[in-house]
Amino acid sequence: MLTVITYVDGHLNITDHLEEEFNHDEVKNPLWIDATNLTKAEAALLQEKFGLHPLTIEDLLHARTRIKVEQFNNYLFCVFYALKKDHGIRPAEIDFVVSRKYIITSHLGMLQFIKEIQENHEKLEKTFVRGMDFLFHHILDVSIDTFFPVLEYLDRDIEQVDEMITKKASPEALERIMELKKGVVDIKRVALPQREKVSLLTKNEHEQISRRALPYFRDLYDHSVRVYETIENCRESVSASYDLYMSTMSHNMNEVMKVLSIMATIALPLTVLSGIFGTNFAVLPGASSRYGFWIMIVIMVGMVGSMIIYFRRRGWF
What we know:
Layout: E1 2-8, E2 11-15, E3 31-36, H1 40-50, H2 54-61, E4 68-71, E5 76-85, E6 89-98, E7 102-107, H3 112-119, H4 121-130, H5 132-145, H6 147-167, H7 171-200, H8 214-277, H9 292-314
Parallel strand pairs: 3-7
Antiparallel strand pairs: 1-2, 1-3, 4-5, 5-6, 6-7
């Protein structure tokens, strides 16, 4: 589905199609074409009307394209990613075809931030007036900002997992740590190359980006760096949570072994004493006494009590 937005005589015109007689060489008014779930027919139309390279069309039609910034004869082709938080954390690919006169964006499914940009007519009109490079910056800026709410969510989730571990180091906590680790790794896999490619847009090497727009792209690069640094902090926090989990499990295991060792230590002399008096000798001291059994029980209880007091004084439990 195509959304065609033009800025004519101070007003936005929004349609869902391109005129048959349209020719990109004759574009006089700023133009933004946003493609949602681009079809092959729509891609062929864009190639015909804008003279797009076949490799650009191939990238527009295929999802999960690597992050890139490529200069063609009359346009700049870029692939960047935003983040979506629905049924998990998912990267959302956005393809850009940027020219002095127009900009084409392509993505799979409806992206809320794109919809909000299109609905904010007042700000969109001002951006159109400034130029296509500023519209490119605005869309890319908002897409990068989608990382921050997701990273804040991850940070809160990590804190909850830490609290869960301090209460009880359960298998559910370890499973949650592994999920967080996978999420952080997936985001980092996007954020690192994206930071590097955004830096390419700040070097005044592309005719589609004017010199007056460069400071804004440098600010955008700062946002990308901040995203990456935040991800690194989350990665370290997840690693710390895993270490906390393993330490807690080790501590719990040591406590169990301590209790078992104390029980075994207490049972050892009782076993020896009962074993001696359980031998089949004809004459055993106290065997003929009517109180012999109870005397042995008292001695055992005394030994248990003495060992418990000794262990307590030593601070063993």
